[in-house]
Specification:
With about 400 residues, the chain is mainly α. Helices cover about 85% and strands about 0% of the residues. The protein has helices at about 5-45, 45-65, 70-80, 85-105, 115-135, 140-160, 165-185, 190, 205-210, 210-235, 235-260, 265-270, 275-305, 310-320, 325-335, 340-365, 370-390.
Length: about 400
């Protein structure tokens, strides 16, 4: 029997702590959105939250575009050129800042556009520095920052005399600036340093260099969020609120597949096709076992916390929507290991387009059940596409 040495145990312990803290950090933001949506719906109305969700997803989309894959791109650059970290960071920051300044006049054409700019600016700053958190493994710092700001924002909401759109804007904007300020303070040496390394020449070609990372992230975001964007555009705000509540929790359920695989990601890159098929099948079976319990739990949760009810067909579609990722996530990791990200990109793009089209067809007659049905159909189609690719 193989026994780990003291050094190896310490190494694995540190790795496990990093994985847990990083997972907590990634889950805090959606957890905050779930909590604040419950408070707004209970203390104010669904219409109020549904209207604000339109601004929330707009700010998130613009911020995602401005990020332009910088985190993934810089992590690769830092690993390949550890002596040029400062130059690489600035080479990604400067062109994206220019893009933000170009977008600002367009945002001002929207209602409350200046509020969006005040909101997106700190999101842009914090996103630019998140790569330092990951590269330097400062996950405990990030978790404490998120938790402190989340508690403060929730208290500001609970203690308010009344909940309005203006107050929600103020809470989210101040919270975003708080996070950006803490990150700037923590990584001020990066901002103060002017050591432009040779990689600074990448300023003019950054958008091309980081384009694959940007397209993967954007296509994945659209594939998972196009239903909410479509619903926000054509459905009543009360329906948007009801749908956003459940879809956020379902994304938590989908994240469970990723958490199960996190400790084995590096190994997945090296495994052969038959082994990946076995892992995908086992993970899919796990998903089948936990899904009924998860859906019943979510049903009870939203009924008790939000005082919302949904038809049985909606919950059936919810389970069918959340399940396929348990089957295709291991295959995605294998494709990454084979440098076949292009296939993942095209699946995401086609999935987003088809999802949007199905949403336009199904939302008018079926409402939020139609939106979830469209997303479920596309998730199963993506599962089939990945299985076919892995069988080749």
């Amino acid at each position: 029997m193989y026994i780990l040495t003291s050094t190896q145990r310490q190494k694995w312990r540190k790795r496990a702590i990093s994985i847990v803290l990083n997972s907590i950090q990634n889950l805090l933001t959606p957890a905050f959105n779930i909590t604040i949506s419950a408070l707004v719906i209970r203390l104010a109305s669904r219409d109020l939250w549904g209207e604000f969700v339109s601004w929330l997803i707009t700010a998130q989309l613009v911020a995602h575009i401005l990020a332009w894959g910088n985190k993934e791109y810089l992590l690769r650059q830092f690993s390949q050129h550890p002596d040029q970290i400062i130059g690489a960071w600035w080479s990604a920051f400067v062109p994206r800042l220019a893009l933000f300044l170009l977008i600002c006049p367009v945002l001002l054409l929207l209602d409350s556009g200046w509020l969006l700019i005040l909101w997106i600016a700190p999101l842009f700053i914090a996103q630019s520095l998140e790569v330092m958190v990951i590269f330097r493994k400062h996950f405990a710092f990030a978790v404490m920052t998120e938790m402190t700001l989340t508690i403060g924002m929730l208290m500001a909401l609970v203690l308010a005399d009344s909940i309005t759109q203006s107050r929600l804007f103020a809470i989210f904007i101040i919270g975003a600036w708080g996070k950006a300020g803490v990150y700037v303070w923590r990584y001020k040496k990066v901002l103060e340093a002017r050591g432009f390394a040779p990689l600074a020449l990448a300023h003019i070609v950054y958008f091309r260099l980081a384009l694959p990372f940007f397209l993967l992230g954007l296509s994945g975001m659209l594939a998972s969020r196009i239903d909410l964007y479509t619903l926000s555009a054509i459905a009543p705000k009360s329906d948007v609120a009801s749908y956003q509540v459940v879809i956020n929790i379902l994304l938590y359920v989908q994240a469970g597949a990723n958490f199960i695989l996190i400790p084995f990601v590096k190994t997945l890159y090296r495994l052969d096709k038959p082994t990946i098929q076995k892992i995908a099948m086992r993970l899919f079976i796990v998903g089948c076992l936990i899904m009924p319990v998860a859906i019943m739990g979510i049903n009870l949760l939203v009924g008790w916390v939000y005082e919302l009810s949904y038809p049985p067909m909606f919950w059936l579609m919810a389970g069918l929507f959340a399940l396929p990722i348990f089957g295709y996530l291991p295959i995605i990791h294998r494709l990454y290991g084979q440098n076949a990200q292009g296939y993942v990109l095209w699946v995401n793009i086609i999935g987003a387009v088809c999802n949007g089209a199905l949403n336009l067809m199904l939302i008018p007659p079926l409402g939020i059940t139609g939106a979830l049905t469209a997303s479920a159909i596309c998730q199963w189609a993506m599962l089939v596409a990945y299985i076919c690719r892995n069988l080749r």
